[in-house]
Known about the structure:
Order of helices and strands: HEHEHEHEHEHEHHHE
Low-confidence stretches: none
Number of helices: 9
Helix content: 40-55%
Largest sheet: 7 strands, parallel
Amino acid sequence: MQTDEETSRDILDTAADGGINFLDTADVYPLGGGLATAGSTEEIVGRWLKGKREHFILATKCVGRVDPAPWDQGASRKHILDAINASLRRLRTDYIDLYQLHSDDASTSLDETLEALDAVVRAGKVRYIGVSNFLAYRLARALGRAETRNLTRFISIQPRYNLLFCEIERELLPLAKEEGLGVISYNPLAGGLLTGKHILAKGPTSGTRFTLGAAAERYQDRYWHDREFNTVEALRTVADLAGFSLTTLAVAWVLSNPIITAPIIMVS
């Protein structure tokens, strides 16, 4: 669910008061928006951070399309160098703690991407780099290329992981453990499905990720199926027996995996 800036600031204030000090965003956000809104989430975060930047670890991402030109997307040298400057401006900071590739750009060579990321680290604009939505073999290849060429290596991954989607346990998580990578998993509540609030027969709920602009189709493809709803009902029984809410059970399950550094909790 999207919120206005005032509500967003209240959420950020509450999170900060609760001890949360890691903020993750992306240059294409808000989720489900288009080119007209790309970057506005970074702007909100940047205004909120004024006067307290040093108290937070700030992460953002590039690769998604942010403008109409064909080069305003991807992991090319041009786009990365343009994107980091734009994110710094919107976030009102002179450095990003963790700069991540939002997805894998197979049309650009890994060497070119790694060289560009190494350049922004050496320029002091970025402290560390990571990836999101990478397959294990591509991440392994990128780590190998960085080591061979003495370039800055990725230190974290941000994969989708929850009780309804755990295929990363087969290859990606073992790779992360072996290479000492942080794992900042997203979708621990499966876009809100694991809260138990959705009803299959009524269709996607208005105002949620399942009806949210450009993200709606993606989330429905991921989770809006009989099998997923049947699993949620079975998990609800387990949660009731354990004396937990379904939401608590879902997040606790992600946290119970020792390879997971932290799940990203989002309003759903």
